[in-house]
Design a protein that fits this description.
- By secondary structure, the chain is mostly helical.
- 60% of the residues lie in helices and 0% in strands.
- It has helices at 3-18, 26-37, 68-80, 82-92, 103-118, 124-138, 143-157.
- Helix 1 packs across helix 5 (103-118), helix 5 (103-118) packs antiparallel against helix 6 (124-138) and helix 5 packs parallel to helix 7.
- The two termini are 23 Å apart.
Length: 162
């Protein structure tokens, strides 16, 4: 997992925790999350156990490298632009109110829309791909297709191309 994908995982987890909260201090939320949970590592990573008779060099789990600047920007950006992002979501999800979307899907979609609309340094194709990967990892079985469909429609709504 790349440092940027880890950053998106961290941002998703923090934003998920902040969803529905009026207390939106992105920096404090990120710091709390990192203190409590650290950074997600690749699922296939195995930490070797110390050889019998040897003390472990460090009892704490290693912190996987991640792009903290990207994580903080995603958290701050989604928090700052949430009303605007939710308006886009409302227009896209005609059959569902934003509040009725699965919380993890809603959070992934908010991040994706923020990246499409406000992070011009992230190509649209990358924003879509990363949102779909988050949906595969954290969402239900149908989440990747759902996220892909809505964000593809968001491209049109925002006047962008993948």
């Amino acid at each position: 997992m790349t440092p940027r994908r880890r950053a998106r995982c961290v941002a998703l987890q923090v934003l998920y925790a902040l969803d529905g909260s009026d207390v939106l201090d992105p920096s404090a939320a990120l710091a709390f999350h990192l203190h409590q949970f650290g950074v997600p590592e690749e699922e296939t990573t195995v930490t070797p156990e110390p050889v019998s008779g040897q003390a472990a060099e460090n009892d704490a789990a290693p912190i996987a490298p991640f792009d903290e600047e990207l994580a903080l920007d995603l958290i701050q950006g989604v928090c700052t632009h949430r009303p605007e992002i939710d308006e886009v979501l409302t227009r896209l999800s005609r059959k569902w109110r934003v509040e009725r979307l699965a919380r993890v899907d809603r959070t992934i979609l908010r991040m994706g829309i923020y990246e499409l609309a406000h992070r011009k340094s992230t190509p649209a194709r990358v924003a879509l791909s990363e949102a779909i990967e988050l949906a595969k990892r954290f969402g239900a079985e149908e989440a990747p297709a759902f996220v892909n469909g809505l964000l593809d429609s968001a491209l049109d709504l925002l006047g962008l191309q993948a």
